[in-house]
Amino acid sequence: MSANRPRKIPLVFYRTRGGSEVVRDWLRDLPVEDRNVIGLDLMRIQYGWPIGMPLCRSLGGGLWEVRCDLASNRIARVLFSLHEGHIVALHGFIKKSQKTPDADLDLARKRKREFER
Predict the structure, then answer these.
(1) What's the pTM value of the predicted model, to 2 decimals?
(2) Residue 23's CB: how many other CB atoms inside 10 A?
Protein backbone atom coordinates (compact mmCIF):
# COMPACT_ATOMS: atom_id res chain seq x y z
CA MET A 1 0.00 0.00 0.00
CA SER A 2 1.33 3.42 -0.93
CA ALA A 3 2.15 5.89 1.83
CA ASN A 4 0.41 8.63 -0.19
CA ARG A 5 -2.89 6.77 -0.36
CA PRO A 6 -5.50 8.16 2.04
CA ARG A 7 -6.69 5.93 4.86
CA LYS A 8 -10.21 4.57 4.41
CA ILE A 9 -12.43 4.21 7.47
CA PRO A 10 -14.66 1.14 7.06
CA LEU A 11 -18.39 1.76 6.79
CA VAL A 12 -20.78 -0.67 8.45
CA PHE A 13 -24.56 -0.64 8.49
CA TYR A 14 -26.61 -0.93 11.66
CA ARG A 15 -28.23 -4.36 11.76
CA THR A 16 -31.49 -5.09 13.58
CA ARG A 17 -31.84 -8.08 15.85
CA GLY A 18 -33.64 -9.76 12.96
CA GLY A 19 -30.56 -9.25 10.79
CA SER A 20 -31.82 -6.61 8.36
CA GLU A 21 -29.64 -3.65 7.48
CA VAL A 22 -32.24 -0.89 7.45
CA VAL A 23 -30.06 1.87 5.99
CA ARG A 24 -28.77 -0.40 3.22
CA ASP A 25 -32.37 -1.45 2.48
CA TRP A 26 -33.46 2.22 2.40
CA LEU A 27 -30.63 3.02 -0.02
CA ARG A 28 -31.58 0.14 -2.30
CA ASP A 29 -35.14 1.47 -2.53
CA LEU A 30 -33.96 4.89 -3.77
CA PRO A 31 -33.51 5.77 -7.45
CA VAL A 32 -30.03 4.96 -8.74
CA GLU A 33 -29.12 8.66 -9.10
CA ASP A 34 -29.91 9.28 -5.42
CA ARG A 35 -27.96 6.18 -4.35
CA ASN A 36 -24.96 7.42 -6.30
CA VAL A 37 -25.02 10.86 -4.64
CA ILE A 38 -25.38 9.42 -1.15
CA GLY A 39 -22.74 6.76 -1.82
CA LEU A 40 -20.27 9.37 -3.04
CA ASP A 41 -20.89 11.51 0.05
CA LEU A 42 -20.37 8.50 2.33
CA MET A 43 -17.15 7.70 0.48
CA ARG A 44 -15.91 11.27 0.99
CA ILE A 45 -16.38 10.82 4.72
CA GLN A 46 -14.64 7.43 4.69
CA TYR A 47 -11.55 8.89 3.01
CA GLY A 48 -11.56 12.41 4.42
CA TRP A 49 -12.65 12.09 8.05
CA PRO A 50 -12.87 14.38 9.92
CA ILE A 51 -15.01 16.52 7.61
CA GLY A 52 -17.12 19.49 8.59
CA MET A 53 -19.81 21.58 6.96
CA PRO A 54 -21.35 21.63 4.46
CA LEU A 55 -21.06 17.82 4.04
CA CYS A 56 -21.05 16.67 7.63
CA ARG A 57 -22.38 18.10 10.89
CA SER A 58 -22.29 16.98 14.51
CA LEU A 59 -25.67 16.43 16.14
CA GLY A 60 -24.13 15.97 19.60
CA GLY A 61 -23.58 12.91 21.74
CA GLY A 62 -21.39 11.22 19.12
CA LEU A 63 -24.08 11.38 16.44
CA TRP A 64 -23.29 12.93 13.03
CA GLU A 65 -25.20 13.59 9.84
CA VAL A 66 -24.15 13.35 6.21
CA ARG A 67 -25.92 16.12 4.30
CA CYS A 68 -26.74 14.97 0.77
CA ASP A 69 -28.25 17.27 -1.87
CA LEU A 70 -30.34 15.24 -4.32
CA ALA A 71 -31.97 16.16 -7.61
CA SER A 72 -35.24 18.15 -7.65
CA ASN A 73 -34.22 20.13 -4.54
CA ARG A 74 -34.56 17.11 -2.26
CA ILE A 75 -32.31 16.53 0.71
CA ALA A 76 -31.25 13.22 2.23
CA ARG A 77 -29.61 12.61 5.56
CA VAL A 78 -27.66 9.63 6.79
CA LEU A 79 -27.14 9.68 10.54
CA PHE A 80 -24.03 7.89 11.73
CA SER A 81 -21.61 7.44 14.60
CA LEU A 82 -18.02 6.33 14.94
CA HIS A 83 -17.37 3.13 16.84
CA GLU A 84 -14.05 1.30 17.21
CA GLY A 85 -12.60 2.73 14.03
CA HIS A 86 -15.73 2.25 11.93
CA ILE A 87 -18.39 4.57 10.56
CA VAL A 88 -21.75 3.11 11.56
CA ALA A 89 -24.70 4.14 9.35
CA LEU A 90 -27.64 4.21 11.77
CA HIS A 91 -30.54 5.85 9.93
CA GLY A 92 -31.29 7.37 6.53
CA PHE A 93 -34.21 9.48 5.38
CA ILE A 94 -35.35 12.11 2.90
CA LYS A 95 -35.73 15.39 4.72
CA LYS A 96 -39.10 17.09 4.38
CA SER A 97 -38.63 20.08 6.70
CA GLN A 98 -35.88 22.49 7.75
CA LYS A 99 -35.42 20.89 11.17
CA THR A 100 -34.42 17.25 11.53
CA PRO A 101 -37.46 15.55 13.09
CA ASP A 102 -37.03 14.45 16.70
CA ALA A 103 -38.33 10.97 15.81
CA ASP A 104 -35.44 10.48 13.35
CA LEU A 105 -32.89 11.71 15.90
CA ASP A 106 -34.37 9.50 18.64
CA LEU A 107 -34.29 6.44 16.36
CA ALA A 108 -30.63 7.03 15.45
CA ARG A 109 -29.68 7.52 19.11
CA LYS A 110 -31.51 4.31 20.07
CA ARG A 111 -29.72 2.37 17.33
CA LYS A 112 -26.39 3.88 18.39
CA ARG A 113 -26.90 2.64 21.95
CA GLU A 114 -27.91 -0.81 20.70
CA PHE A 115 -24.88 -1.03 18.40
CA GLU A 116 -22.46 -0.03 21.15
CA ARG A 117 -23.64 -2.84 23.47
Answers:
(1) 0.92
(2) 26
